[in-house]
Here is the input.
Amino acid sequence: MIEFRSVTKAYPDGTVAVADFTYTVESHRTVVLVGSSGSGKTTLLRMVNRMVDPTSGTVAIDGLDVRDLDKVALRRSIGYVLQAGGLLPHRTVLDNVATVPVLTGTPRRRARTAAWELLERVGLDRSLAGRYPAQLSGGQQQRVGVARALAGDPNILLMDEPFGAVDPIVRGELQVELRRLQAELGKTIVFVTHDIDEAFGLGDEVVVLRRGGEIAQAGTPAQILANPVDDFVRDFVGADRAERVLTTVEVDGRCVVVDRDGRPAGVLAR
Amino acid sequence: MNLFADALTWLGDPSHWSGRTGIAQRAAQHLGVTAGALAIAATLALPTGILVGHTRRGRSLVVAISGAARAVPTLGLLTLAALALGIGLQAPVLALVVLAVPSLLAGAYAGVESVDPVTVDAARAVGMSEFQIITRVELPLAAPVVVGGLRAATLQVVATATLAAYVSDTGLGRYLFTGLRSRDYPQMLAGALLVAALALLLEAVLARLQQLATRATTSTPRHGAPARLAASLEGHA
Amino acid sequence: MTWLLLNWPQALQLAWTHVLLSVPAITISVLVAVPLGRLAHRYPRPGGALLSAASLLYAIPSLPLLIIIPVVLGIPLRSSATMVVALSVYGVALLVRSAADAFGAVDARVRLAATAIGFSPWALFWRVELPLATPVLLAGVRVVVVSTVGLATIGALVGIPSLGSLFTDGFQRGIAGEVITGIVATVALALALDGACALTGRALTPWTRSARSEHAGRHTGPVAA
Here is the structure.
């Protein structure tokens, strides 16, 4: 469980990235922080592994204030996935995945064996194990990044727009994979994105953020779609987009779901 | 430290400054040899480098030759040339030209190469002749790097011109060798300080020149590029 | 070449002496310049001053420096210590700039990612920054190697034995063959050491090799993610 209590982040030049943010991320849930740039979502994420320290307020993991924990040990216990992988270019895929276990003292051979298992878990062909990141495609690199984050068996996964740098088709595949992994593993995931569709696709809970980390609305995707709280949220989720405004039409004995322009989106299950 | 004081005393003696073997005369010789060698090296290296940078061909050959030239010890070249050409200025100038060419060459081709190909392409499309492109587009934009090469070359030549005194009666190096031979340490040290001072002076002047060239040609200064290229151009005598 | 055939033991001895002057100086240069370069990169303000001081130091001509050093340090002029100090000074002055650039060439995102997943500052330097800085660093070291080997010959002018002694002796006795031997030997030594550096560099950086060959050999598009 991750608790943000009245967290504020202000910079010396006057910019306020986050103002008085309070929220609790329940364990084993996927929470997506979604907003445009300037909404403070990445800042909030990076407060969890102390890459950023709040100006005021506290961040607590399972009741412990992160400021009381050793930074380096904390980071090794949390899985972190960022855009464009952030993989070590001078290490093979296998060694990249094994990075955190090796840092915490696991013998290299054992770490590599475990990494080997993990590759399959994230949908990577094992023949890639000896390659270097530069030899992989963007989608493959992201999978390695996810594997690396999982290697230390952390309870918490922080994901900072991890699928932003790949093309839409690959992004869709990676999202599906993540949902599958989460169903298997049940980690606590905090996911940051600016893409509302991605947020709805992945999140158990979605937090829509305004500038300065102000929560516009928090709830399940269904709740937000059903009842957007104000114009900002309505606009952001595209509540008036053609594909969101759905009605049913009877066609040949079936209920076909169509969008506002009359284009079919699906069929109601019998 | 006593020795420094003695050297300064030696420098303070006005009789050491005037006359045919005086400091003023020798400094002039030193600079003269430097300038002469640089001029010759420039006429060889700059056109070649510019051409290589402009056509983007022949680079590997030029790099190989520069590398080889840099590995040749200047003292060896100097003594060999002196044995072949005799005592006098010919041998030192030859050795100094060989020393200066790599840096000038590198500055020229690296500078011209670094000009954005898009800019050159646009100039060509607008209708400039190749010669106009070189003189009006590439050279002005390449100036900082070319000056960097000039700076590196000048420093090396000024320093090595000290050695000219080994095979001829020219330049400030004479004080070092005379002092060495006659165990006149104050003279030797004074000579060393003079050459060092001259080199530092030139370095300061050329650094300023490079700064001005950089400012004149770029609105957004290319911080790393000129300095890095300049560093890679350096070899030493 | 007759000179070489008649005098090869002496030439070999001088070559060995030359190595004994060059290699320690190169080693010292690397050991001093790499940390200094990193500091210069990390703290740009004092770093800038450091790099300027280095340029200035490098501008001092070799023979004068060779004469000034013993006076400042109180060691005899004719000693190999003087030569090694002088060579090291130039090596450091040359290499510091390269080292700063080398650390600057390390992708900031990689550094940040490594910090975020839990590298301690110590591990970050040794296992991430240094390996990634190696390619550029090595290029700088190679320049220092060639420069040092060439510079070591100057010592002969003040009586410090090295391959340069073949120049002074050959000149004074009018034997061109001796001078030529000296030149060839110096160049050969420089190229040999440079080659050794290049090979070491290739061995230390396997990831740069494979990326290049991969780009060269790619026929099909990226495999489905």
